[in-house]
Amino acid sequence: MISEMKKFIISKNELKKILAGIVAENIKLIAPVSRDNAFFLEEVSDAEKIAWDYSNVVKPVKEHIFPMREVLLDFGRGTDPPALDEPEARSSGKEKNPAGNMPPVKEQVIFGLRPCDARSLLVLDKPFLQEKYVDSYYKERREKTTLIAMACLNPEKTCLCSSFENGGPFSSAGSDVLCVQTGQDEFLVEILSEKGEKIFKNPSFAQPSGEVLKKLENLKADSEAKICKALKVPENLRELFEAGTWETESLSCIACGICRYLSATCYCFNITDEFEQRLRYWIPCSFKNYTKMTSGEISREKKSARFKHWYFHKFSYHKDNFGEYLCVGCGRCIKYCPVKIDFTEVLGKIGNSKQEQ
Amino acid sequence: MEEKKEKNGFEPRLVGILCRWCSYQGADLAGTSRLKYEPNMTVLRVPCSARMSPLFLMKGLTSDIDGILFSGCHPGDCHYISGNMNARRRFVIFKKLLEFAGMEPERIQMSWCSASEDKKWADIVDSVTIEVKKTGPNNKFK
Amino acid sequence: MQNIYLPELAKIEKITEETPDIKTFDISFADAGAREKFTYLPGQFIMMSVFGFGEAPFGLASTPDRKGYFQCSIKKMGKVTSEIHRLDAGNIVGIRGPYGNGFPVKEIEGQRLLFIAGGIGLAPLRSLIYYCFERRKKFPDITILYGARTVKDLVYKPELKKWQEDKSIKTVLTVDPGGEDKNWTGKIGLVPKILAEMNPFAENTAVVLCGPPIMIKFTFIELLRMGFREKQVITTLERTMQCGVGKCGHCSIDKYYVCKDGPVFNYEQIKTFLEEI
Amino acid sequence: MKIGVFVCHCGTNISAVIDVQKVVNDLAKMPGVFAMDYKFMCSDPGQNMIISEIKQKKLDAVIVAACSPCLHELTFRNTLIRGGLNPYMLEIANIREQDSWVHTDRDKATEKAVRLAKMAVAKAKRNQPLFPQEVSVEKSCLVIGGGIAGIQAAIDISSAGYQTVIVEKEPSIGGKMAMFDKTFPTLDCSACILTPKMVQASQSKKVKIYTYSEVEEIGGYVGNFNARIRVKARSVNMEKCTGCGICWQKCPVKVNSEFEQNLGPRKAVYVPFAQAVPNVPVIDCVNCTYYRSKRQNPESKGLCRICEKFCPAGAIEFDQKDKIIEEKFGAVIVATGFSAFDHKVYGEYGAGRYKDVVTALQFERLLNSSGPTQGKILRPSDSKEARTIVFVQCVGSRDESKGVPYCSRVCCMYTAKQALLLKEHIPDANAYVFYIDIRAAGKNYEEFIERVQDEYGVLYLRGRVSKIYRTGDGALLVRGADTLSGTQVEISADMVVLATGLVSNPETVKLGQMIGIPYDKNRFFTESHPKLAPAETQTAGVFICGACQFPKDIPDSVAQAGAAASKVLGLFSQEHLMLEPVLACVNQKICNGCFHCRAVCPYNAIDEEILKDKSVVARVIESKCHGCGNCISACPVSAVDLKGYTNEQILEQLQSLR
Amino acid sequence: MKELIDKAKELLKEKKVETVIGYREIRGCVVPAYVDSPCDADCLIFDKRCVYNLANYLKWFKNKNVALVLKGCDAKSINVWLQEFQIKRENIFIIGVECYGVMNEKSADAGLSDKCGHCEAHVPNIYDAVIKHQGDKKESVQGEPFKDIQEFEKLPHDERWDFWKKQFEKCIKCYACREICPMCYCKECIVERNIPQWIMSSPSVKGNFEWNMVRAFHLAGRCVECGECERACPVNIPLMKLNKKLIKEMKELFDYSAGQKEDVKSAIDDFYPEKDIKIDDKMIR
Fold it and tell me: From A81, which residue of chain D is nearest by alpha-carbon distance?
């Protein structure tokens, strides 16, 4: 239930004014922008450029917390011994060694992300933060980010966020502020955390009237009705490792990296050195060289083995390790797959393939 | 002002990849006959112009070198019979591709220079240096 | 906020050439604080980085009791290792770790010990072997079976000779057929075959296994045939690793991360893995 | 990896422009690099310094920053061998020819020297020790061209006991020298000194002569060339024919004889000249009536066949076919000689329209007693005796506009000789020689010219001939200038002899590309080094001698033939040959089997290999590969790499300039 | 599509092929279909929405004998495969389909994709059987094929650079353009090599530029212009613009277009004799 006190009505220009205010305070504003008929979450300097009529952005929000390419260390060009520089020195503004030229991490506000993306950060927090080894880069960016989510009024036919416990087009899990576009120029804004409080400092705006709340309810209802896909993971998935007809399901897959990269919750990465910087960058587990050992042996060589590992890591291994599926149902892997493979269908076929034998 | 000064004060960093049978000996002959030319080009010796894979052009330009010159034997003179002919085709195709992608054509050059053409070698180095100096530094990948 | 990817600077003290493509590096940390802090169990591994070329996991070959410096044996395979082989004594490398769970020294106390190693696999076992030598009371009976492709590929040759003379331990060396030379006295044949010939006593014996995956697979079959219990058979798994701290997903097998849940598994766990090793 | 950088002063050649000390300091800063300098690195103390540094500091690689690798790469490789290092762990930074000698600005040149040295260090870091490949040597030599140079080379090699094969295009060996009457300066009869050599060659058991044949294809590499020789059908059985000559007496067909420079006739079945070796005739199937009728309608029995009827030994075989001979050779000597310049391009000398304007070779045939006029000097137009003859020097030599900028070296001498012989034949004939400069730079050459001018009264006019007219009564009016007396000169002559220059053999281009040896813009074969290696070419195992390298007289040709032969004997004396290990090698795990490499390889040194998993991959035939690197640029995944110039090394060199 | 289904059934009944790879429609969109038994061959269809280049799936059916439903542009890839010894002609049975243009998924109005605008391979040039076209045989508009390329070439070079820099910045290195392209069949792609590191593997401006340049160069004289790479790119980079530029150059300079014959040497490995080369001498000093 959205508590009364933190909710208010705001018009589009006021919202734009607040966003412009954020940019003025030298805080990085990231918002959806339209480029080559696709929408991306990018840094925006003036609020006018923000796109409002989009179903979802191409690259998930993890792109801004766990960037596609992030410089971990900069050990200077050719100084011997290398002058190590790392986030500690960066964030505390300590006089960096001459070689270290990595920019400090700025405060950032992400506006216009969808509730499923906001929830994906909750899922990603577990492997990155609640483990014996805490990833300091992720932690630093996560703490400096404020999420202003925009509820989904018309989800796409590939969305299945409602199949998850705290999911749904209007779910407020994971975001600091949830906006719902109730009217043409009217937004119902709900503050969910102190970070959200800091953004909307003086809520001198009008409280939502009962009629607006009722409009919110049926907006929510018919938005949830639009979701036609559901996720049904077979319980005996581990037995289906051998038994399942993975071979035939994976035939049309071309083992590219789209479903891994655009998945809101995939987080595999590589660490490599480029000249005088050590950096990490995303890598999909669908490539043959993902599990290539120095002896040249590849443990998951066959395409079907790599295809199968993605399903098992998301719906079996992660659940055993962290208690929840590594998926938030954003549906990007279905929407952008070049050969239109739908993982819910594959799971369905694998599930009832046991009965046939 | 800075950009202009930097332009005429700009010393381009050039790389010349020479085939050891013709162009390298032409460059040596330019040395023995004490011809004078610009010192910006650093020379790299490979057996034949066929060895100069066009990917060296790309790798050179992305590791902040301002201009690359391939130099091999004249058609028909190649010590390895047809090496320079294959090199010519690969070079032309890759240069057209890089030009299409926006790279200034002066940064990528190829020349035929035989073992006896020392004067031609000195002229090539000078004109490439002047052209690249005109196009300015290669800060596409800074 | 401790940065888990930040390596400590360390100096290479000494380099000894074991075989044409395997070198053993004695490494000590640059500053004293790190040297004290760095304590490890046999079977753990470190991530060694050569700045500008990359990082790679290497098993610790020296015993934790030897203070001051530790040893790693590195075979020249890819980009990072061939750059490491170009280093000389005195150069600086980055060390991260120790990672992994190490051998279960507590459980195998008091039992008879059978070490089976293949090729460079002797390095992590050597750490455990010297650990047991320090505590001979707890580990009375030690047998070592070590095989390599050719005589030239045998590592730690001086120590092998010392172990062969030491009567209190039984040491069997073997080389693959065709790998022997004129004055080779040891056995000739693959490790599983020699193991079958030795027919070790299965009762109350812990087996520690390390080597290329194919050797591990065939040795498992032999051991089970000879009646070893699954819990007693311990091995380390070889997987590609990028982060070493259970984040990057490269070393995943079934639901375990080889770097976090330990390169060391016993056969009972391995049996349950969906993917074979 | 410890690397030693040795910077050379080269006296003052380098240190005059480059601050050597700064180069040493900059290089010493690099990790694992020891830098030092010395005045003469290539000298013995310099080399000993390198050897002691290698031993003392246990270096893994050596960089020498000095002169061009073309000069001292070998010397420093041997130094490394003496120092106990693999010779291919050496890199040379060329800071003399390409730095100190060509730049003036001191600190820019120094900075360039540092860049060159750093690039060499980057490459040396990734050098692998390479071991030269041992290859067997086929102890037999192929000589292409049967002129005096080819014959001399063949004789020298066979006298050392090695098998030699001469391949000659004409029906007989002897080349151009067989056409001469006398030779300067000793006026020996050319045939008298040539024929013994030809006979010696033909009788030697070690020399096999294929005349009237051509080399069609040469493959392989030094020590293992395989050549395909086409012996054209002579239509005469070599064994049976006794050389009696009845067949060419009876043959009804008369044709212009090329040997006689179209001044005299020859028959369809002919021997080019009397002392031909082998003295076996050839049937010219273009003009022979029998072959012409056979071509009209192949089924008919064919006309004539007179030579077959009259041949006592029954040696005529009309159905003889071309024979293809495949043979393996260890070395190849190219002695294809020269051809005379075609003077028709000179309009002012009549452009070939006047029959009495003859070339020097034609005049040589007229002088020759076995020539078409049995030694009498008659005008080709009306065969009256020619009493005044004008010799014109430098026709087709030293003339940039006609594309012959060089001096052909021999025309001055042979013109003087011809003038002398003319005076001997007809004492009161008067001979004029129009010349630009007389070039007589040989033993007794100048004295010979003096003798021709004083004793024989040949009149030398310094100037060029501007025009030759043909007057009504058939005489030739030669108008020229005499710059010494500053007057115009006009001579009415019976005959004009043009001293045509020497140009390259038309087959040079085809032959050069077949063997893989370069030729210069005048189409003469390019020697490996103009001063130090005139008889060698850049391709190992291939040597050149005689006029095909550059116009030269008989003594020089014979001397160069001896040089080429000695190089071949040097090659044959080694049991095994060390081949450059700079070869391509394929990483078969990565190869896709698309064979772009085989498509570009000029030596088709790549063939297929089936792996265990039945996938077809490329394999480099080490013996055929010349290490050009064409396959490496063609391979999309760079599965193939060139030892000594690997992709990794070249990329490191590019990135060392960052 | 009865003809197509009968042909597939006949092949499977006579065991001439193990599987027939064609197109199938499920939940309203067309996906590749793998038919092993004659009975389920009825799902095979062919219409405007069949955009995939099925020749790409030969990567995973290398030495099995398979039947493929191929349009004109896709069949040209088989020629290049044969030219590069990747498959044996007798292993595959090509069911050629007469095609008059396929849909462009990314354009809003779902019109014909621009490769079909100047298509001259309505009937494949290599096939074992041909399925006639049912619908209207609308002759493709024979527009000037390389007009957009020529316009782009006229722009000044820094404008071109900004355009491509912005495009390459979007690239996320998912390599869908490599995995969907039939010409990219390498066992180990050059991107995965780290000795030497030809291409920076991380998605930086430098890494993306290098990757796209090498990919385009490897298609010189091999790209059959099936347009799959541009369709598969999730961030809409106009990859066909690069490929078309190279197709134009290969046509103009060496008069060679990919996939015409399978026994000819690819133009990038061949060379003219000395003189009559069309490369203008300005390119080489």
Answer: D31
β-strand pairing of A177-181 with A186-191: antiparallel
> Is the pLDDT confidence value at A87 over 70?
no
Report helix angle A343-356 to A303-312, nearest 10: 100
Mean pLDDT of the region C96-108 = 89
Residue A296 is assigned to a structural domain of this protein: yes
Interface of E with B in 193-212 (CB under 8 A): 198, 200, 205-206, 209-210, 212
Instruction: Check if B79 contacts D (Cβ < 8 Å).
Output: yes
Pair of tokens at residue E224: 């059959």
Per-residue model confidence as pLDDT tens digits over D411-422: 999 999 999 999
Report CB contact under 8 Å: A80, D589.
no
User: Which one of C86, C88, C91 has the shortest CB-CB distance to D125?
Assistant: C86
Residue in D126, D648, D653, D656 to test binding to E, most E beta-carbons within 10 Å: D648
Q: What confidence tier does A167 reach under pLDDT thresholds 50, 70, 90?
A: confident
Burial class (CB in 10 A: 0-12, 13-18, 19+), E282: exposed
C-alpha to C-alpha distances, A128 to A85, A195, C209, D28, D423, nearest whole angstrom: 22, 21, 33, 45, 110
Residue A3 sits at φ, ψ, to 5 deg, of -65, 145
Residue A210, pLDDT above cutoff 90: no
Exposure string (b/e) for C118-148, b if CB count within 10 Å is 16 or more? Answer: bbbbbbbbbbbbbbbbeeeeebeebbbbbbb
> Mind telling me how many Å the CA of A301 is from chain D's nearest CA?
14
Q: What is the pLDDT of residues A129-155, one digit of tens each?
A: 988 889 888 988 999 999 999 999 989
The Cα–Cα gap between D355 and D363 comes to: 12
CA D520 to chain centre: 10
- Inter-residue contact A50 to A31 (CB < 8 Å): yes
- Residue D53 structure tokens: 């540094």
User: E157 and chain B: CB distance < 8 Å anywhere?
Assistant: yes
Q: For D616-656, write each residue's pLDDT tens digit.
A: 999 998 878 889 999 999 999 999 999 999 999 999 999 88
Asked whether residue A288 is domain-assigned, the answer is yes
Distance of alpha carbon A300 from alpha carbon A258, whole angstroms:
19
Within an 8 Å CB–CB cutoff, is residue A211 touching chain D?
no
> Residue D246 above 80 pLDDT?
yes
Residue among E219, E278, E227 nearest E246 (CA): E219
**C-alpha gyration radius of chain B:** 15
pTM value is 0.82
* Domain-wise residue ranges, chain E: 2-131, 147-284
Chain B neighbors of D603, CB-CB under 8 A: 80-81
Assign domain B10-135 one CATH number from 3.40.50, 3.30.420, 2.50.20, 1.10.10.
3.40.50
Same domain, A190 and A257: no
- 3-state SS class at A208: coil
Pick from A268, A269, A272: which is nearest to C54 by CB? Answer: A272
Whole-complex ipTM:
0.90
Dist. CA C176–CA D452, nearest whole Å: 89
Asked, as a colleague might, if the bond just before C98 is cis with ω within 30 of 0, I would say yes
What pLDDT does residue E246 have? 94
The answer to whether residue D602 scores a pLDDT higher than 90 is no
Higher pLDDT, D335 or A6: D335
- Quote the CA–CA distance of C209 and D560 in Å, as a whole number: 73
Question: Mean pLDDT score of chain D, rounded to an integer?
Answer: 91
Structural domains in chain D, CATH included, are 3-124 (3.40.50.960), 134-232+322-337+506-575 (3.50.50.60), 246-310 (no CATH), 343-503 (3.50.50.60), 582-642 (3.30.70.20)
CA neighbor of D180 nearest in space, from D148, D157, D226? D148
Which residue is listed with tokens 């087009």?
Answer: A169
